[in-house]
Amino acid sequence: MLQKLSDNRWVARSRVKxxxxxxxxxxxxxxxxxxxxxxxxxxxxxxxxTTVIEIxxxxxxxxxxxxxxxxxxxxxxxxxxxxxRMSGGVAPxxxxxxxxxxxxxxxxxxxxxxxxxxxxxxxxYTQIF
Length: 129
Fold this sequence. Notes:
Blueprint: E1 8-13, E2 17-19, E3 23-30, E4 34-45, E5 52-59, E6 64-71, H1 73-76, E7 82-85, E8 97-99, E9 103-110, E10 117-127
Antiparallel strand pairs: 1-10, 2-10, 3-9, 4-7, 4-8, 4-10, 5-6, 5-9
């Protein structure tokens, strides 16, 4: 029986990001052979009521990009400060993802009526060798 084991469990944290305009940015680089278990989004300073924030990424193996693959805007809820988590959500990867060749976690923001807001994310993953 061939199996691979890991005791390498990591939490990656993005820097606190301050935005006053729309755009897509890379938040965290994920290494190869990573099982993404959970993503937490912490809204530090709330945005306006029409702001949309989605957390997605790019899986390098499949060249698969999904702008809201981990968390959709209702799950992030940028108008309310606090910690939000991806598990239990409706996004395609909200139950986790295995990225054999690594990838990037990204965030897409449509500013709406906001002038500025701050947030950061934490990504819990296990690297399997």
